[in-house]
Amino acid sequence: MLTIPQVVEEIGVPRATFYRWRQCKKGPKSIKLPNGSVRIRRSELVRWLEMREESA
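Request: output the structure for the sequence above.
Response:
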């Protein structure tokens, strides 16, 4: 499970861009933990990136 700072560093976008994608339902699916933290599964990030490759 990756944190948002880990994801934005890996894909190279500003945090604000990532949050905008989440708000518009364009980012990778995320999980909100009971403590309020947000995590993204590595497998979901890979799947999301592969979908972007196919549409490029």
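The first strand starts at residue 31 and ends at 32.
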